[in-house]
Specification:
The chain has 161 residues and is mainly alpha-helical. The chain has helices at residues 3-29, 33-36, 49-60, 64-79, 83-124, 128-149, 156-160, and strands at 38-40, 43-46. Helices cover 80% and strands 4% of the residues. Helix 4 (64-79) packs across helix 5 and helix 5 (83-124) packs antiparallel against helix 6 (128-149).
Length: 161
Amino acid sequence: MRPTRKIIVEFIGVFLIGAGAGGLATWSYTDTELSGMQISDAGPPRPPASDTQLSTFMSRTNDADSMVARMNKKYADEYHLTPDELSRIQPTIKEMARHIFQVRHQFGLDIMSTLDDYHQKIAEQLTPEHRAVYEKAIDEHRKKLNSMLLLDQSSPTQGSK
């Protein structure tokens, strides 16, 4: 084999090995088979990261007062704001937290209403024995969603502003 052809074959071989290694690395980091469920050898399938992110967001926006405290800490730590600057932006931070809280609450209500409507339409088309099983499962799922989506109304800032 001529030296130039040997170099070309070696170059292509190195390229293919690199592509294979890159493909394996990508495959291991994007482990989202089975309809978005993440599979691992460590246990049963678990929800994808986006579900965890949604759950985290929903719990962090469940209380407007704690949201204000987190925002104050973030602005003080990340932007090194002075106490005077923090006090000047407090009305805006509180307004932003209330608005996020209201949008989050409305989101929860809209999701639950939409699911209820479609679950009812589906149940109407099932046989009585299948409908009973379906409605029982939907009831359990609804309770879980209620706890995540609908808010704890105990925070004094939430309902009154």
